[in-house]
Amino acid sequence: MPAVMWFRRDLRTRDNPALVEACAEGEVLALFVLDPALWCPSGPSRRSHLTASLRALGADVPLAVVPGDPVRRVVEAAREVGAQRVHVAADFGPYGRVRDAAVERALADAGVELVRTGSPYAVAPGRVTNGSGEPYRVFTPYSKAWAEHGWRAPVDAPTDPAWLSLRETTDLPDIRLPEGLALPEAGEAAAHGRWADFLDVVAAYGDDRDRPAVDGTSRLSVHLKYGEIHPRTLLADLAGLPNPGAATYRKELAWREFYADVLFARPRTARDYLRPEFARMRYDDPRDHLEAWQEGRTGFPVVDAGMRQLRATGWMHNRTRMVTASFLVKDLHVEWQHGARHFMRWLVDGDLASNQHGWQWVAGSGTDASPFFRVFNPTSQGRRFDPEGAYVRRWVPELTDVADPHDPGPDDRDRVGYAHPIVDHAQERREAIARWEEIR
User: Fold this and answer.
1) pLDDT tens profile 201-245
2) Does residue 342 share a domain with residue 421?
3) 12 vs 216: CA distance, rounded Å
4) Considering the domain boundaries, does residue 40 fall inside one?
5) Which CATH number fits the domain that encloses residue 258?
6) Which 8-state DSSP code applies to residue 226?
7) Using CA atoms, how far apart are residues 19 and 437, in angstroms rounded to an integer?
8) Which domain covers residue 412, as residue numbers?
9) Tens digits of per-residue pLDDT, 92-150?
10) 333 and 316 fall within a common domain
11) CA–CA dist 278, 255 (Å, integer)
12) Domain identity same for 35 and 143
């Protein structure tokens, strides 16, 4: 019996339960719909990686790519190949849930079933709840319930699948990246290669993950975003590594799933405050300093280094993400949504749940929120986590020959042409706390 495998955030053949189910039916149409509702808001980084990932998948699977509204295009594809079932991995995002419900209704009208198998997560959002049956709002109890719930073992790729095709498909668009932007390799093979490399150094992850000048993180966020590798695969490999670094990395995977669970339970938090009282805080007009922050010319070296790394690579080290976010919200007094939107435009791993709730954590309005009075000092953060100044010198080359790249003096700034600080951190910290006191 012909079936359709509708790929979305699962661009791989290994450990793909939905693909296994589709292939068990008989001949399979491998389908991808270029949905304008997702394509148009994406920035150049995500568009480029998506098309590269689809090309990589297409080398293993004869992928039929069609543009347009999935409600129409999926039904048309199923009818053309005579499929009675369309297989997908469940989508738990705000848009994906609405889209899939609409596609399911349209398919049902055509006598076709939408079959959901698996998801982008080891534990699907909504699966674990507290003693009252409510979703968790705090990470630590969630992570314990998540680990106790457990997950299935990875599954092998289907063997010798028989593929179908459509009469008309579209070519993937060629994405022209902005000058100076270079992205990592995309695809399932690249994901597994990166994971194999990281397993060689995961034991040091607990110490190295906060040092932006060190290649001590997995860099798998983009591969997880597009489903080029599944977290079950990572967790299965980590289970055989009883070292602190592996345990710390597993905790980071739990954070990713926690934020997906929070967004699933409260989809409005993709745009609005989880803690509404923070919407009453006084914020400044973003036009005053937002552009300087975006372009990495605030005069605070570690902040500028992070923002320039983002524009050059489509990625930013997690420690620097926290520092740059704190600077925007608490030093420049700009609402977190402006920063979150900029990150989503340029991040190749831009994931709605992780990005929005990471920003809300920094802004004090999210889950497990850092108390608002804990304002990151960008200079001390730089000295602590980039003690030799290698990260700052890499991304702010003006400061290469400056004695103290984390706090260059006025004469050094003028000599090398580096910006003077656009604000006084100590003064703005006091101002941020005063505004917070107003809404307590």
Assistant:
1) 999 999 999 999 999 999 999 999 999 999 999 999 999 898 999
2) yes
3) 25
4) yes
5) 1.25.40.80
6) T
7) 53
8) 276-439
9) 999 999 999 999 999 999 999 999 999 999 999 999 999 999 999 999 999 999 999 99
10) yes
11) 23
12) no
Indicate if 259 and 400 belong to the same structural domain: no
Rg (CA), the chain: 23
Residue 47 to residue 53: CA distance in whole angstroms: 10
**Bridge-based pairing state of the strands 3-6 and 113-116:** unpaired
CA distance 40 to 100: 19
What is the domain count for the chain? 3
Structure tokens at 334: 């700009």
How many Cα atoms occupy the beta-carbon half-sphere of 369 within 13 Å? 18
Asked if the structure places residue 313 within a domain, the reply is yes
CA distance 340 to 364: 14
Q: Tell me, what CATH number does 31's domain have?
A: 3.40.50.620
Residue 115, strand partner residues: 87
Are the C-beta atoms of residues 363 and 336 closer than 8 Å to each other?
A: yes
CB 302 within 8 A of CB 382: yes
Structure tokens at 209: 């993950």
DSSP 285: -
Residue 143 lies in a domain: yes
For the question of whether the overall pTM of this predicted structure is more than 0.90, the answer is yes
Helix axes 139-149, 244-265, angle to 10 degrees: 100
Using the 3D structure, point to which of 94, 119, 144 is the last residue of a domain: 119
In a domain, 170, yes or no: no
Instruction: Locate 272 and state its tokens.
Output: 């609005």
Sign of CA dihedral 126, 128, 134, 139: negative
Distances (CA, A) of 275 to 141, 263, 283, 429: 19, 13, 16, 21
Give the separation between CA 157 and CA 15, rounded to whole angstroms: 6
The mean predicted confidence, pLDDT, of the chain is: 96
